[in-house]
Amino acid sequence: MSQSLSPSHLPASITAPVALPIRTLLPWAAFTVLLSLLLLYFVGAEQGATSLISGHAVHEFVHDGRHLLGFPCH
């Protein structure tokens, strides 16, 4: 435990970060944006005249989240 890290004990090569092609990330980014917008709709606007699902089940399910995010609901 009394060893110190001097430059002679450090690894000689440092690996470069892996480059990800945009074609690999684009479908995941699009999915994330779509899922985020869908979640924002259900938390922020799923009530009243803009309701896609009848009843109050969705509203009651996201009720506390609406208050937490500052959306009015009453």
Overview in brief:
By secondary structure, this protein is mostly helical.
Notes on the structure:
With about 70 residues, this protein is an all-alpha fold. The chain contains 3 helices and no strands. The protein has helices at about 20-45, 55-60, 65-70. The protein is elongated and about 65 Å long.
How are the SSEs ordered, and which strands pair?
Blueprint: H1 22-44, H2 57-61, H3 63-69
Main β-sheet: number of strands, strand sense, barrel status?
none
Which assembly state applies to the chains in this document?
A: single chain
What Rg is obtained from the alpha carbons, in whole angstroms? 24 Å
Alpha-carbon distance between the two ends: 63 Å
Strand composition percent: under 5%
Shape summary: elongated
Unreliable spans: none
Overall mean confidence score, pLDDT:
79
Instruction: Please tally the β strands and state the result.
Output: 0
SS-derived structural category: mainly alpha
Helical content, roughly?
40-55%
Order of helices and strands: HHH
Tally of DSSP helical segments: 3
Descriptive labels:
74 residues; mainly alpha; 3 helices; elongated; 0% strand
